[in-house]
Every structure is written in C-alpha cells, then in structure tokens.
Specification:
- This protein is mainly alpha-helical.
- A hairpin with a 2-residue loop joins β3 and β4.
- It has six helices and four strands; from the N terminus they run αααααββββα.
Amino acid sequence: MVTANYKKQFERALLALGISMMIGIVVLGEEFRNSLGNSVGFFMNPLITLLGDSNFHIVLFIMAAITALYATLIQKYTMDWDLMRNVQEKMRVFQKEFREAQLSNNTALMKKMENQRSEMMTQQLEMSKQQFKPMAYISIISLPLFMWAYFYINSHEAATMVFPFWGEHILTDGLLGPFHYWIFWYFIASLAVSQLMRKALDVGGI
C-alpha cells in the first residue's frame, strides 16, 4: 500500500514537472528557454567537444535517437494498447453502422445509436487521457534537449549541413515558415528512429 502511494505521488510529481515545463516554455518566453537550454549544456557540450562543431547534425541525430527511444519506452509501459485498439475498432464499427443508418433513413436505429454515443465519448476521453500522460513524461527529456539545441544553434549560426538533393544549407536558415533546416533534420531523424524503435519493441499497431 505504501509503495503504491509513493508510486502515485512520484507519477504526479513527474506529470506536474512535464506540464510545468511545457507551460513555462510558452508563457515564460525566451529567457526561460535559454536558461533551460544552457543548463542542459552541462551534459551536451562535451558531446559537441568530442564530435566537433562541424558535426552538429550528428549531435542532432543522437538527440533524436535518445528522445525516440525514451518516448517509445514511455508509451510502451504507460499506455493500455489493448484498450486503444478496442476503442478504435468500436469507433470504426459505430461510424460505419451509423452512416448506413443515415443512408437508409432508419430513424429508429439512429435514435438507438445516439444512446451509444455517450458511452463511445467516455471511452474516447479515457483514451485521450492515456495519450496525454506519456506526452507529459516525454517532455521532461525532449523539451530540455530541444531547448539546448535551439540555444546552441542560435549561438553558432554558421553551422551547415549537406542535404541530399538540396546541397549545403545553413542550419538556422528558414525552410518553411518558422521551421529551420535544423528542426527539419531533427524531425526527420526522430521520425525514422522512432519507427524503428516502435517496430523493435512492438509498440502501437493501432
């Protein structure tokens, strides 16, 4: 019982930390983001020293791998994937049957199914809660790393990378709107590594 209470308190503390960090980045602005990124430099700057400033894209790839592995493990052990699959399947069946009832103008069936809608909404709300919790946990690692990259790259604006078919570009140059080349590379690397991790650890499959 005591262990269970400690576990709940620890989970609540982690959730509070993750949510606070997400809110802080948005509300507290540039000063908070730079302070967070600068503090993470204690761990990340030695990696830069080892690989060199010219290989910052490799550092970004390592960051993407770390966050992808961490996120996959969090999702694997904090989410009820059986519940997620069941809710998704029930929703698909419900939408199909409701659409058929509409096309056939079966008002009796539609009225009956309207009573099922509240139950479906409750299950979807539970599914949304399960998706939010891992996101808060993941932010504890991913946001500080991202803020460090943001802080570092803005202090080294001459950093470049050679992209396939695009040639060499300065990583701080804009690619599309607010997205810079370094964010695009980080996103692509994170997505690729995440897919490999999810496949290896059998996560998802909804």
